[in-house]
Write a structure and sequence with these properties.
Helix content: 10-25%
Strand order of the largest sheet: 1-6-5-3-4
Largest sheet: 5 strands, antiparallel
Number of helices: 5
Distance between the termini: 40 Å
Shape: elongated
Radius of gyration: 23 Å
Structural class: alpha+beta
Length: about 250
């Protein structure tokens, strides 16, 4: 679900109103009929056809579960008035929050924004100051802050674009192999680092020919050129991949 939270943007300390609107989102990255734009809090087109909305967490947490919501709304209200953002009904900041394996915030960065000059860095700093631990098994989330009356903070999902590794790798070797060797489609677990280089490779299912497997791994290393991204920024990714073999 998407959580919408509101507080009235006044010059003095506001009474924080947290009106939560639940929008269903299923664990597969779709969401009860919710569009891609609704899940990502943005109508920007995907950078590549293979990019997708992250499937989790499901349901999405309310802002109060990942941040000091009272302190955050007060700080954003103050900044909105100081910078003049609150007087522009179209002012917003869409940002990405990344977490490490211990659920601690590792990075907060801008995806897109429309803010008065000099306001962006202040708003990012204020958000970072009030964020707490992230949801379990979650690498990244999005937040969209709208300096409207009332102010809105929405929690959404991130967009993942896998590294374009092995896109042109395939085997033309026949499954019958040579002699008594029967070749099956091999399966690997690969790690692609955030600099685009191939990290560890684990053979999950060999082809039946160790030399053939080593040749495929070498080809994977040569094909690794650019990293995967989360919300447009490079990220280390690991995943399973199979290489087709003729006859299977």
């Amino acid at each position: 679900m998407l959580a919408t939270h509101r507080s009235r943007a006044l010059v003095t300390l506001p009474a924080v109103l947290l009106a939560m609107v639940s929008l269903a989102a299923c664990a597969t990255g779709g969401g009860g009929g919710r569009s891609r734009a609704a899940l990502l809090l943005s109508d920007a087109p995907p950078p590549r056809p293979d990019c997708h909305v992250e499937p989790g967490p499901s349901p999405l947490p309310p802002i109060s579960a990942i941040a000091d919501s009272a302190g955050l709304f007060y700080g954003l209200t103050r900044l909105g008035n100081e910078t003049g953002a609150v007087r522009q009904d179209t002012a917003y900041l869409l940002l990405s929050v990344r977490y490490d394996r211990d659920r601690r915030v590792s990075t907060v960065f801008r995806i897109s924004s429309y803010l008065p000059e000099g306001a962006e860095a202040k708003v990012l700093g204020e958000v970072r100051r009030h964020l707490g631990a992230g949801p379990a098994n979650t690498e990244s989330l999005r937040l969209r802050i709208a300096f409207t009356r009332p102010m809105m903070v929405r929690v959404g999902r991130s967009e993942r674009c896998p590294p374009p590794i092995g896109a042109r790798i395939g085997s033309t070797r026949n499954s019958a192999g040579d002699g008594d060797v029967h070749i099956v489609p091999p399966k690997f677990h690969v790690v692609v680092l955030d600099n685009g280089q191939l990290g560890a490779v684990t053979v999950l299912r060999g082809s039946g020919d160790d030399e053939f497997d080593r040749a495929l791994i070498d080809a994977l290393r040569q094909s690794a050129r650019s990293p995967g991204t989360i919300d447009g920024k490079p990220a280390t990714m690991e995943f399973d991949m199979s290489v087709p073999v003729a006859g299977h």
